[in-house]
């Protein structure tokens, strides 16, 4: 029996497909013969569980791979949320609140679960399989760099002493001086590591394209477009985001690096050549997405309280 409700939905479907020049009857045939959707097919479970390809027979390498894959999926969700704010046709405090809460939840999950990397692997196993992965490094996460670019003015991603001559420079020149490029140079010679050269070859064009697209649409710029009343509501969430990405996240990495690499002679090589002892601590690099939201005292002590906590 066709109820009035079902009849109305069929009418709406006919209108929908007619507007596209399509015949509803053909689509109903497809629905009639289609199999029921299953959970494992919907999330591509078999594909997902076969995306781990260890380079060694050492068991804990699989932990290392899976955690990094999970991290990249959270980064993808964060970039989607940033895009929702950056490209919102009608900007409001509600848009910011919804998406910032999501991003902060993603990073809270990553930060709180990082114990998997700190204490969740056997140290000797890690040191064995990590040497087989050179020169690959988590430093090479293109999505994390895109999160940075989508969050703030590009000049804020340059070390402070280098900013004055770049304030009026083209984006390409600013990008060439972005802080992380000096985080993957050889200590003895100052030359780029292979890790950095691979990374730049893969992503620099994409980074410039995104920086251009987001030049007036990054989170900092969009925040400044809000009314003072809305800014007061959004500011605490932006500060939490700033701390999550620029203080807490690098600090848990620093803790992990100290746990596994601090006393080994291969410590620099084991992270693909990255000088992590200078590069990871927030108090050293002092990258801040929203400097206008912090006091001078906050900026002078950037990362110190969190360093004490971790």
UniProtKB/TrEMBL annotation:
Gene Ontology MF term list:
heme binding; L-tryptophan 2,3-dioxygenase activity; metal ion binding
Q: Which Gene3D superfamilies match?
A: 1.20.58.480
InterPro entries per record: Trp/Indoleamine_2_3_dOase-like (IPR037217), Trp_2_3_dOase (IPR004981)
Please indicate if the UniProt record lists Oxidoreductase as a keyword: yes
Q: Does the keyword Oxidoreductase apply?
A: yes
Entry keyword set: Dioxygenase, Oxidoreductase
An annotated GO BP? L-tryptophan catabolic process to acetyl-CoA
Q: What is this protein called?
A: Tryptophan 2,3-dioxygenase
Q: What is the species listed in this Swiss-Prot or TrEMBL entry? A: Chitinophaga eiseniae
């Amino acid at each position: 029996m066709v109820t009035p409700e079902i009849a109305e939905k069929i009418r709406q479907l006919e209108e929908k497909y007619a507007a596209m020049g399509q015949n509803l009857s053909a689509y109903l045939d497809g629905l009639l013969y289609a199999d029921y959707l299953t959970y494992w097919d919907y999330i591509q479970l078999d594909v997902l569980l076969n995306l781990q390809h260890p380079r060694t027979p050492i068991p804990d390498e699989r932990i290392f791979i899976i955690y990094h894959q999970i991290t990249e999926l959270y980064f993808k969700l964060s970039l989607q949320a940033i895009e929702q704010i950056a490209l919102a046709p009608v900007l409001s405090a509600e848009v910011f609140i919804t998406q910032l809460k999501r991003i902060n939840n993603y990073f809270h999950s990553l930060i709180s679960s990082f114990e998997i990397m700190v204490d969740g692997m056997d140290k000797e196993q890690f040191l064995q399989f990590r040497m087989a992965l050179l020169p690959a490094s988590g430093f090479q996460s293109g999505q994390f760099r895109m999160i940075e670019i989508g969050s703030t003015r590009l000049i804020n991603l340059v070390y402070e002493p280098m900013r004055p001559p770049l304030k009026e420079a083209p984006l390409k020149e600013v990008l060439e001086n972005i802080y992380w490029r000096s985080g993957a140079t050889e200590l003895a010679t100052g030359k780029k590591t292979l890790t950095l050269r691979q990374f730049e070859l893969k992503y620099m064009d994409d980074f410039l394209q995104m920086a251009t697209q987001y030049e007036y649409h990054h989170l900092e710029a969009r925040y400044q477009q809000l009314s003072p009343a809305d800014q007061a509501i959004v500011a605490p969430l932006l500060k939490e985001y700033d701390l999550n990405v620029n203080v807490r996240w690098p600090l848990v990495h620093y803790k992990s690096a100290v746990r596994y690499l601090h006393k080994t002679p291969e410590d620099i090589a084991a992270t693909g050549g990255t000088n992590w002892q200078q590069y990871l601590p927030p108090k050293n690099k002092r990258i801040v997405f929203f400097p206008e939201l912090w006091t001078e005292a906050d900026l002078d002590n950037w990362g110190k309280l969190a360093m004490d906590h971790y």
